[in-house]
Backbone:
């Protein structure tokens, strides 16, 4: 038994330690393509804060890198193991400690599944908005690590807006409490927000105080067909400029529509270039849909179909929620990009992505959180085909370059991880990078926390 | 001419430099009581980013401390000069560079007055929510520095939620761009949020990208009278637990009501212990007011008066906006506290504050952003009376201690500054303090930026 395992055993029950290589291999990587993953020395599955502190103290003492993991549904390789590391899986710390309708807060452990929390708070008339596509498998800790988004963001914002306070185990095992449990608070630097999106590189989140909203009425959704990306982009701009705040404003291109039909036989219109879905959870959603329908028509929509009830709306949303999965079934592998541009540049982004696909002779389907300008071009390829793989990688990079050129960011909600770390430096520049590295060094002077990610 | 002035002149026009001690004395402090203020060596009023960079390069070269200032309406001494410092007043950098209804963003310089921005965006159908009481004189740069709030926060959140990206001149004169112009973005650590609330101690904000909302309908406001703090606190809890989201939910105690009447003869009910104002900017505010009226009655309100129109509502809001000013006119000086507690502890906070006032034989009026649990106990005293001053200081501290005991924070929106720096350590503890100091050192290794504040 190695010294590492022996030490870990000193503060962990047997069931919390996995060393069988066949099993630990299953924890080697997240959902990203093209990201190298090493072989972990051990997978640790703690149930208590004290156990996490023991793991970090041990790691610091023995200078062993630690890779924290949630549901491993990430798309950037941020949860990938490195050789000889401790994989610290937080999935067993999955208790909802408190849901308080007066404070509109929930206190949770990091391993709580997003959808489990969403359903639990809904039972008390409350709403936890962040809803990444992986919501049935991703954890709140992972959402905090990546700064996850979803369909809700155009109205409700991203994970960062919902994290009020954190308990964090630092790299040396000390416990830090950040933020507050109150609605407001500005005492000192905002360390809470520093941890959101930090991809496990600054500390291990072991408890989070989350803000909740009252549960909104069920959405009513409208579908609008457009003959071009330019027309769909124009509609998005008109909707936002006219002062509407849809609860979702989603776009699927023709490739995506075909893929969804093929997967689920949903009867989506395959002749259209772009389908826009606009949802409203307002007191009078039919009125909002009527106004948005007129704006879509003015932007050149060829067909506008407001759902007549919640069931019809749910069907349209189901199509959107299937989009990524459907695109994944086109070829054997995908790279999912996550470029966010100003809304006014959405059409340029869509057209530019189509040009990249044509240039490299690849299928690239795009679904987008159009209301945020956040596109997910999905590059489809066969990894056994070396040339196609090379072209896929090149396309992926060209799409990010295009996003930056259009005044956007390389990642709206998926994070940097391994996949985009060279691009992070391009986006934030040398001064920002130096300060970010300084923060990393401040929190993790030995460089043990999720090494090789972000930078 | 001192070496400092000579060097500053090298990159600044004459009109940007003020050395006359009679004039510079006017820049020595902000609006806080009991906070020491030194004598600045010079006041600099730059108009361009390049001029700010020159100031910071000069300060670094000559090791001169720099105290950044906005409208100096702060209540914690965060803008107070230190002896021999450069006061860096950003008030002349007051251009609104862009207002974009499609992106729902504004790009501004730091010296833009909050109310000026609010009116400018309103003309385009947009809304910049943060509305501190000082909104006619405070600057966006100052709002970012303190993490300012206001009446709007119960529905719309605080300044931090509206800052998407920043240009910051670092202590050595380098320019850092943080964040993004897009609706979403998670590339790297969130440096933007680190600057919000940092009280000018990490860098000089010279440009901000702010998020805007569509302009809401005008508010309809209800006033409810309560026979006790407990009943008013209960009403707040019922309103929030029942899923309402008022655009404001404010409380004034009897002392405040009397002070407002005395100042402005407004006919507010002086026999009541607490007056609650609830405002709604929803599509059907009358329906919301009716629901809230019923909840107030159930909580024991003795009188509930919904405003019948916007003019009546505006009158009620005017009373609230006068509250702090009215309390200031009771004695010759005030200390304004800013303790935020969980909503369920609001009544305890109000009763505890009354007990502190009785114990020290002082007038302490309380107005509160009740929907956030954010109370502003205003300790009234005569600074020429040494014993009364001592009791005022003791009360101020006991109120913060009570707030922490109730699970709250020492500052909901005013910041730490000089006034509460010993309390910051108590609130965040040694681990947090060490990391916060580390961040300060990373951004400002020579300790030149706003020294003696926060820590």
Residues:
């Amino acid at each position: 038994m190695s010294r590492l395992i022996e030490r870990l055993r000193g503060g962990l029950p047997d069931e919390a330690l996995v060393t069988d290589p066949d099993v630990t291999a299953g924890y080697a990587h997240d959902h990203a393509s093209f990201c190298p993953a090493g072989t972990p020395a051990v997978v640790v599955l703690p149930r208590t804060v004290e156990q996490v502190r023991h793991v970090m103290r041990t790691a610091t003492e023995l200078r062993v890198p630690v890779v924290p993991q949630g549901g491993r549904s990430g798309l950037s390789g941020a949860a990938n193991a490195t050789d000889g590391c401790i994989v610290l899986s937080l999935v067993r710390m999955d208790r909802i400690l408190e849901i308080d309708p007066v404070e509109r807060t929930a206190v949770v452990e990091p391993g709580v599944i997003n959808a489990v929390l969403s359903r639990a708070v809904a039972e008390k008339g409350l709403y936890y908005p962040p809803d990444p596509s992986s919501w049935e498998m991703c954890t709140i800790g992972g959402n905090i690590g990546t700064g996850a988004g979803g369909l809700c963001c155009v109205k409700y914002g991203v994970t960062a807006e919902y994290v009020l306070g954190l308990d964090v185990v630092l790299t040396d095992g000390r416990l830090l409490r950040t933020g507050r449990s109150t609605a407001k608070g500005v005492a000192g630097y905002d360390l809470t927000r520093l941890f959101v999106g930090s991809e496990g590189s600054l500390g291990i989140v072991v408890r989070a105080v989350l803000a909740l909203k009252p549960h909104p009425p069920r959405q009513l959704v409208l579908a609008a067909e457009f003959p071009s990306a330019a027309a769909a982009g124009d509609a998005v701009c008109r909707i936002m400029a006219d002062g509407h705040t849809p609860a979702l404003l989603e776009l699927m291109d023709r490739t995506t529509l075909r893929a969804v039909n093929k997967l689920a036989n949903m009867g989506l219109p395959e002749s259209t270039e772009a389908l826009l879905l606009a949802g409203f959870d307002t007191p009078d959603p039919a009125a909002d849909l009527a106004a948005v329908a007129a704006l879509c028509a003015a932007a050149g929509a060829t067909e506008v179909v407001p759902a007549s009830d919640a069931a019809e709306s749910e069907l349209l949303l189901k199509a959107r929620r299937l989009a990524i999965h459907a695109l994944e079934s086109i070829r054997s592998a995908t790279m999912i990009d996550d470029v966010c541009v100003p809304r006014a540049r959405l059409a340029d982004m869509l057209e530019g992505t189509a040009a990249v696909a044509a240039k490299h002779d690849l299928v690239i389907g795009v679904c987008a959180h159009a209301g945020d300008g956040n596109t997910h071009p999905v590059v489809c390829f066969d990894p056994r085909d070396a040339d196609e793989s090379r072209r896929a990688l090149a396309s992926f990079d060209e799409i990010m370059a295009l996003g930056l050129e259009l005044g956007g960011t390389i990642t709206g909600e998926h994070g940097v991880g391994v996949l985009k770390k060279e691009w992070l430096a391009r986006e934030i520049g040398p001064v920002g990078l130096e300060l970010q590295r300084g923060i990393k060094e401040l929190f993790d002077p030995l460089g043990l926390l999720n090494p090789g990610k972000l930078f």
